[in-house]
Design brief:
Length: 161
Amino acid sequence: MDKLREKMTKLKLDVESWQVKAEESTDKIKELEQALLEKENEIKSLTTKNQTLEEQNEKLDTELEAQKKSSELSAQLETSSENLSKKNATLEQDLETSDLTLKETTAKLREADLKIETLENKLSAMEKEKSSLETKFEELEEKFKAAQSELDEISKQLEDL
């Protein structure tokens, strides 16, 4: 009888332990989902920034072309030519800066994609672990019910005696 009680107590402790593990897994999944959401938001932000930089790059290319045409038309005026050359140099520097920024943004986007993929893999593994833990919990619960039934049957037999 004491062994059965000890077994019941052990089963209850095991059930509680699995419930704690299930809650921890659920919390971990929530944390990973939040991190994934943050990474997705970061990707959206970087994508928007990338689009803005591309638009600026196109705008700068357009401005550069316009400045080149203006330079050809006003080649007769030396001072105008110097001013346009300075502006052209500034635009080229801005273009280089934009290109560097675009490359950095693209690299960050790739890193974010890798991090998201890693987090998705971790999330998948956590979901599998959760499923496994739930299955084990159900098995333990069935064992507990069987042990409870057996205990009730033994108690009934003892009362009959």
